[in-house]
Write a structure and sequence with these properties.
196 residues, 2 domains
Length: 196
C-alpha cells in the first residue's frame, strides 16, 4: 500500500483517536487533526462522512472517559495537582455550581472552545451531573462540533488551489503578517478559555 492510500484509510480513525484523547482531559490538538483529516479527504475526493463519524465517536467516547475520571477521582486529583494547571479550589467550587445550574448548555457549548473542550467532561463528572443527561448533551454537542469542523476542513481542502493563488499574491511578507494575526488570535482565545 502506498503512502497516500495509507493516509486515506487512517486519517479519519487517527483524528477520532486524537479527539478521544483531548475529550478525555488530555490537552491535545484534536480539532487540528479533524480539520487536517477533512481537508485531506476533500483533496482526495472522498466522502467526509467517515471523518465526521470518527470525530463524533472520538468526542463522545473521550467525554465519557473524562466524565468517569471526574466522577471517580477528579476532585482529589484537582485539589492535589490543580495548581499545575492554574486551577484553584474556588475555581472548582464555581465550576461545580455552574454545572449544577447550566450543565446541559455548558456541555453543548464547551465543545467549541479550546480548554473547555478538554475539561468539560471531567467537570461534569466532578459536579455529579446525571450521566444520562451528560451523555445526551455530549453526543449532540459532539455531532454538531464534528460536523462543523469536518465541513470547514472539507471546504478548506476543496479550495487548496484558491489558497495557493492567494499565498502567491500575498507573498512572503503578507503571509508572515497573516500568520502573526492568526497566532495572536489563537493566543487570545486560549487565554480567554483558561479558568480564572
Amino acid at each position: 500500500m502506498d503512502w497516500p492510500s495509507l493516509v486515506d484509510v487512517l486519517s479519519g480513525p487517527l483524528a477520532g483517536i486524537g479527539i478521544l484523547v483531548e475529550s478525555a482531559g488530555v490537552p491535545f490538538p484534536g480539532e487540528a487533526l479533524l480539520l487536517t483529516a477533512a481537508a485531506w479527504t476533500a483533496a482526495r475526493h472522498q466522502s467526509i462522512l467517515v471523518v465526521i463519524l470518527c470525530g463524533f465517536l472520538g468526542a463522545t467516547a473521550g467525554s465519557d472517559i473524562g466524565y468517569l475520571l471526574g466522577y471517580r477521582g477528579g476532585r482529589p486529583f484537582v485539589e492535589r495537582f490543580g495548581h499545575l494547571f492554574h486551577i484553584r479550589p474556588d475555581h472548582l467550587a464555581r465550576a461545580e455550581l455552574f454545572f449544577a445550574r447550566h450543565g446541559d448548555k455548558a456541555i453543548l457549548g464547551a465543545r467549541f472552545f479550546l480548554g473547555l473542550r478538554t475539561w468539560n467532561a471531567m467537570l461534569a463528572g466532578m459536579a455529579r451531573m446525571p450521566f444520562w443527561r451528560f451523555q445526551l448533551f455530549s453526543a449532540i454537542g459532539g455531532l454538531v462540533w464534528s460536523a462543523s469542523i469536518g465541513v470547514a476542513g472539507y471546504v478548506l481542502g476543496s479550495n487548496l488551489g484558491l489558497l495557493e493563488t492567494i499565498t502567491r499574491a500575498l507573498g512572503v511578507g503578507g503571509l508572515a503578517i497573516l500568520f502573526l494575526i492568526v497566532l495572536i488570535l489563537f493566543v487570545a482565545r486560549e487565554r480567554a478559555s483558561r479558568p480564572r
